[in-house]
Write a structure and sequence with these properties.
This protein is of the alpha/beta class. It folds into 2 domains: 78 residues, no CATH class; 242 residues, Spore Coat Polysaccharide Biosynthesis Protein SpsA, Chain A, CATH 3.90.550.10. Helices cover 46% and strands 15% of the residues. It is built from 13 helices and 8 strands. Strands 3-2-1-4-7-6-8-5 form an 8-stranded mixed β-sheet, with helices on both faces. Helix 6 packs across helix 13, helix 8 packs parallel to helix 9 and helix 11 packs across helix 12. The radius of gyration is 22 Å and the shape is globular. InterPro entries: Glyco_trans_2-like, Nucleotide-diphossugar_trans. Pfam families: Glycos_transf_2 (PF00535). This is Glycosyl transferase family 2.
């Protein structure tokens, strides 16, 4: 019997690429999803909090976002809202100033940058004047649908071992062929289970909360990569504190009306930058966090390239495998996974010439 070594390698890589994430998901869901939390959450815990809202050309959305924050059921004397604007040109500054003037009962301020240098630069500038024990970063194009979202997120800081907290999130609509909603359904489970195990390496810009003293100790947010919130949370976890996504703080995110694929690619670029940098610190990670950082495998491009080559050169087995893979696109979870991997592959290549730290603004709805 003749064995085609190249084809066997391709099949092996493909099985590993698809089998490992599935096994990881099943492992997390079975062993950790229904386990009780081993950290304390005290609903009576009320720390002083600084809520930072970075903006760039957000005139259409910023008033709604500030109303959303102000409507939270949390003592107003313990909250400060800081809007940091990175040289908007669409009237965002005027809207923010008007909102602050109309809400004298809310402690709010505006910091203006004279140039756009990226989100992390703006956050680090604001961190110097933030007075809260906890600092929360929240994007304008997101919402906290419950009036208890803020209190619920902050309650986890009653445990001194918790250093950072983020939300679970859902998109406002499905995105391309339902991929965005399917992606979130899958990874909300993963992030929650990773958090119960120890910590998750992926945080969400809709609500990312950090102990201020830990941020100061780290020197602020990293300015050389895009996923500044996720990388900061990972550094906190590597230092021994918990960085968790919690199931009692749900947020919504707006999805671009146009340019959805570019939006996903840019987001994937930032995650790749984050993981590439974080893996260099793997030896310093706590025992419970190491497997989580190792749980990413990028084998699809190699496997697909070999299979395509073998199919074009007349190998029947490769042709059948590619045809079966194409047919499986009718299955939503598989379609979601393939789309996600396609974005990651494209993002990996694109990172070779641009990190997209400051990107072109996209309309969302």
């Amino acid at each position: 019997m003749h064995f085609d070594a190249l084809l066997i390698v391709a099949i092996g890589l493909g099985l590993l690429h698809f089998g490992f994430p599935l096994a990881y998901y099943c492992y997390l869901k079975k062993l950790w999803l229904n386990k009780p939390w081993d950290v304390r959450s005290d609903p009576e815990y009320k720390p002083r909090v600084s809520i930072i809202v970075p903006t760039y050309n957000e005139a259409k959305l910023v008033r709604q976002k500030l109303d959303d924050i102000a409507s939270q059921d949390y003592p107003k004397n313990l909250v400060e809202i800081i809007v940091v604007d990175s040289a908007s040109t669409d009237g965002t500054l005027e809207v923010v100033k008007e909102w602050i003037a109309d809400h004298r009962d809310v402690k709010a301020k505006l910091i203006e940058e004279n140039a756009r240098r990226g989100k992390a630069h703006a956050l680090n500038k604001t961190l110097k004047v933030a007075m809260g024990e906890v600092v929360i970063i929240t994007d304008v194009d997101s919402a906290w649908p419950s009036r208890d979202t803020l209190a619920s997120a902050l309650s986890w800081f009653s445990d001194p071992l918790v250093g950072a907290v983020t939300c679970l999130k859902v998109p406002t609509r499905g995105g391309f062929i339902g991929v965005e909603r399917g992606y979130r359904d899958l990874y909300n489970v993963v992030r929650l289970c990773e958090s119960k195990r120890f910590s998750t390496p992926v945080f969400h810009g809709e609500l990312a909360a950090f102990r201020r003293d830990l941020l100061v100790k780290l020197g602020g947010f990293p300015v050389d990569i895009g996923a500044d919130d996720s990388h900061t949370a990972t550094l906190i976890a590597i230092s021994g504190f918990r960085a968790i996504a919690v199931d009692n703080a749900l947020c919504t995110e707006l999805v671009p009306r146009e340019g959805y694929h570019m939006w996903r690619i840019r987001r994937a670029q930032h995650l790749i930058q984050h993981f590439a940098k974080a893996l260099g610190l793997l030896s310093k990670a706590p025992r419970g966090f190491k497997p989580v950082l190792l749980a990413e495998a990028w084998l699809l491009l190699v496997a697909t390239t070999i299979l395509l080559y073998k199919a074009l050169t007349g190998t029947a087995t490769a042709t059948i495998l590619l045809a079966a893979g194409t047919a499986l696109l009718l299955f939503k979870p598989y379609r979601t996974w393939i789309a996600t991997q396609a974005y990651l592959v494209t993002a990996t290549i694109r990172n070779l010439w641009t990190k997209e730290i400051a990107w072109e603004k996209q309309e969302k709805s």
